[in-house]
């Protein structure tokens, strides 16, 4: 039996945690904590080890996909929800009923040239991509395999065109 690879996009404000922060993390790995949206949490629950993730810088100018990470640990209780001193504290979450979860990711690749949301809007085949949907605000979202292939191809072509 073989595993079907799934693809995701996770947003982070670079001032809070950037792809450079991930690169500097021990073993280029970190937990992805602080998600407080039920749909985003449920997507994280679906993630499997080795699933691929676009790392997206949001709330910046320009917002853009800046690289790729890989899931290295499946969803487990988010300890920040239990800590009253943490900004992600949720008094409804308990050890017996941990409402919120997190995963661990590891950096795979930083894009030499980020792909801005405006560039992606004009690409054939990405018309239905969740990121580009009007009003889409989810911090964790699925990416269809065909969309993944197109975006990675764009990143690779940008590198080749800059080298010429």
What form results from the Cα inertia axes?
globular
> By helix and strand content, what is the structural category?
alpha+beta
Largest sheet geometry: 6 strands, mixed
Please report which band the strand proportion falls in: under 5%, 5-15%, 15-25%, 25-35%, 35-45% or over 45%. 25-35%
Count of helical regions: 4
Q: What is the CATH superfamily?
A: ph1033 like domains
Low-confidence stretches: none
Distance from N terminus to C terminus (CA atoms, Å) equals: 43 Å
What is the C-level CATH assignment?
Alpha Beta
CATH topology: ph1033 like fold
Binned, the helix content reads 10-25%
Give me the side-by-side strand order of the main sheet. 2-5-4-3-1-6
Explain what the structure shows.
The protein is of the alpha+beta class and 164 residues long. The protein has a single domain (7-163), classed as Roll (ph1033 like fold). It contains 4 helices and 6 strands; from the N terminus they run E-H-E-H-E-E-E-H-E-H. It has helices at 19-24, 38-46, 117-121, 145-163, and strands spanning 7-12, 29-32, 52-57, 64-77, 101-116, 140-143. The protein has a 6-stranded mixed β-sheet, with helices on both faces. Strand 3 (52-57) and strand 4 (64-77) form a beta hairpin. The longest helix has 19 residues, at 145-163. The protein is globular, with a radius of gyration of 16 Å.
